[in-house]
Amino acid sequence: MASISMSTVSAPTFINTDSLRSLISHRSLIDHFHCSLPKASSSLCNPIRQSHDVSPTSSLLLMPSWSTSPSLPYIGVKLVTFFPDNSALNLPGVHASYVLFSSTNGQPLASMDGTELTLIRTSCVSGLASRILARSDSQVLVMIGAGAMAPHLIRSHLVARPSLKKVVIWNRTVEKARKLAEKMKESVGLDGVCFESSGCLDEVIEMGDIVSCATNSEVPLVKGQKLKPGAHLDLVGSFKHSMRECDDEAIKRGRVFVDNEAALVEAGELVGAFERGVIEKKDIGGDLVELITGEKIGRSSSEEITVFKSVGSAVVDILAAQLAYETYMQQHK
Known about the structure:
CATH class of the largest domain: Alpha Beta
Number of domains: 2
Number of strands: 13
Strand content: 15-25%
Order of helices and strands: EHHEEEEEHEHEHEHEEHEHHHEH
Structural class: alpha/beta
CATH architecture of the largest domain: 3-Layer(aba) Sandwich
Strand order of the largest sheet: 9-8-7-10-11-13-12
Oligomer: single chain
Distance between the termini: 16 Å
Low-confidence stretches: none
Largest sheet: 7 strands, parallel
Radius of gyration: 19 Å
Mean pLDDT: 93
CATH superfamily of the largest domain: NAD(P)-binding Rossmann-like Domain
């Protein structure tokens, strides 16, 4: 995507939630990641994400990145708060703000809803992995978790694998799963897809060609023995050692891929598996950039179980912000 001339920018642009949704679709962002991620990953400076405990359960995360490449002349910073107990207040557990600057002259260019940006960029990373790793004839998507991330993940997987015809949603609170299924049935652009909810986790896992998890669970939800041959397991929720969405058997049975190397030291499923000797770091099949470039091969057979673990990165944040900002500027010339 062509960069915008900095001389055309005056006051910083504010991109709110509704604007962001109109500027970025799941398809456009998956395609943008597929095209831009390898080059961006090599040109961006990404300091290690800072995470500070605000309380025993809540955190503040700071995620900066910058590039001086002509195709990506930006500095971006995301500020994130993680308050998992917010569900009791009927509020999202994650709030964020994203600020974009010019890396040519330091000028502030835009601020945008970092919460929505995080939701769509995270789901599109999973969608891109699903495009590469899931079976092309996948028909059933199992969505574990019915929070704010779930509808985004559902849409991203449906874009990535148009063969999907059925989505089954499970949540600890059965009513939340039922309400999300009803909401997705009424969504625009999802004709031909059947949505339902279920209260039996083990049964739905056995159905899934793709099993996507977005929870804060510290107790393994996905039992590896329940995964069907050829399934693709997408793990989104955990980013601390104490968090874990699947058991060791799932890691052992599957061929594991990650979004980036930070997953190897942050994700509870992987850190625990390394400590217990279930797998070694050398057993990891590759990261997303290596899969895109073909440096590492993804699925090797129709029976193989693939596992994709993502923890997020400032690279995908700034690429998502780039797409939103440059699309906005093109529309407001």
